[in-house]
Each structure stands twice: as C-alpha cells, then as structure tokens.
Design a protein that fits this description.
Layout: H1 2-6, E1 11-14, E2 21-24, H2 29-36, E3 56-59, E4 73-76
Antiparallel strand pairs: 1-2, 3-4
Amino acid sequence: MSLLRESGLQFVGMSSVGPSIAIVTDRSREEVAKLIEPLGLEIAIETKVDNEGLKVHMAGAARAGASEDDGPRMRCS
C-alpha cells in the first residue's frame, strides 16, 4: 500500500473485512492498471463519484392505502 501511496494516488485504503484495497483517483483505468499489475493486483470494480451528496425523494401522503399517520415515505439514492 505504501508503494501505491508513493505513486501519487489521492487515496489508498484497505478493507478491514477482506483482502481488498480501495483506490480513489482521477487517473484513468489504464494508468491504475499499469501501477497495480506489477504488485499482483487487478481492478475488480470501477465506479465514479458524482459528488452531489445524498438525494431524498419524498412521495406524497396521498398514495394508495396510506393514512396520515404513515407520514411521507422517503427513498434515498
């Protein structure tokens, strides 16, 4: 992990549950693959961060079968 940090990646962390390493970077997949392959590592999951925070969607109390005591339902994404 220290080699990954020294290579200039913005964040490198290890899972406390299993043998997983998380990397947060703005580098391309290809750049990261070149860094980790000599270490015997591979990319298992790649995703992007939208940096927009939590979004809460409210459904009205007028939905079918709802009473006023139920209150609004929320869905987070």
